[in-house]
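User: I'm putting together notes for a lab meeting next week and I want to include a structural view of one of the chains we've been expressing. I don't have a solved structure, so I'd like a prediction I can at least talk through. The sequence is below, exactly as it appears in our construct file.
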Amino acid sequence: MSSAVDTFLSRFPKVLRSGGQAMVQCPSHEDKTASLGVTEGADGRVLLKCFAGCPTDAIVAAMGLSLSDLFDAPIPTSERRELASYDYLAADGTLVYQVVRFEPKDFRQRRPDGYRRRRLPGGRRQGDRRDLSFEETIVNMFTRKIL
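Assistant: Thanks for the context. Below is the predicted structure for the 147-residue chain, given as structure tokens.
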């Protein structure tokens, strides 16, 4: 068993082991026999099943632990990376802003000057295409570049 499971089981005076599972007395209710099943998940986390019906958060709270204590290591977060950027140009060809696509799928808007204000110079809102002329809209549709 993993270190998280062994650490969890070390808090109990009597542990009944059978195969890959252990049975202990549930700390969240009065228990004379072992009714809490403890086993290791595929990723090394502690899996709990109270056969009297206690929820996992109640079991963990009765022991003075948090749900994060049931894991060996923090869950890895994926780094987001830029996949594409879509340029939005003014009629004179200057870059007004970009929409950037990230992996995992997410879209963010950015301005060339780095500011994140909602309003652009001239009072237009960022992302508002109603003020763009037909020519500006066509230019925006065909100037997308894949990074």
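A couple of points you could mention at the meeting. The longest helix spans residues 134-142. The beta strands are 16-18, 21-24, 36-40, 46-50, 81-89, 95-103, 106-110, 145-146.

User: Perfect, that's what I needed.
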